[in-house]
């Protein structure tokens, strides 16, 4: 599974990349937009994971639901804001516990995950600065 986060100005603009992916757009390859991103938000904010992922705006499908090989989901503003606000120190604090979660089979490597978290945070900051939103292109 490929999970590429990118910036777009609207749901329609984001959905338009479903076929080819976000080539040419500011983007970062990262982790699953549902469980792993939700776990990260829970660690960054102290919010309950179940509360986060039960929110209707969490990883909401914006592309055609009939497409079977790729889809685009929107990330809620609360995720983008929390990630954009995270300092290097905060990311370093959460990467250890995050890497040990079930979704990493309890054996993620914090040293490999931290640079990705910083790139993802920088993309979230850019989205916030541009008044745009963060989306994830997910492809098989």
Automatic annotation (TrEMBL):
Organism domain of life: Bacteria
Name of this protein: DUF1877 family protein
Lineage: Bacteria, Bacillati, Actinomycetota, Actinomycetes, Micrococcales
């Amino acid at each position: 599974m490929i999970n590429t986060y990118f910036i777009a100005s609207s749901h329609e603009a984001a959905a338009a990349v479903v076929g080819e992916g976000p080539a040419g757009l500011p983007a970062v390859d990262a982790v699953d937009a549902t469980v792993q991103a939700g776990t990260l938000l829970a660690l960054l904010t102290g919010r309950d994971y179940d509360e986060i992922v039960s929110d209707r705006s969490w990883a909401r499908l914006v592309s055609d639901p009939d497409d079977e090989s790729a889809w685009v989901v929107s990330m809620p503003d609360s995720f983008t804001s929390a990630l954009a606000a995270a300092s290097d120190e905060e990311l370093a604090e959460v990467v250890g516990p995050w890497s040990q979660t079930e979704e990493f089979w309890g054996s993620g490597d914090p040293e490999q995950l931290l640079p990705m978290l910083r790139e993802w945070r920088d993309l979230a900051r850019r989205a916030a600065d541009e008044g745009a939103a963060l989306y994830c292109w997910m492809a098989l």
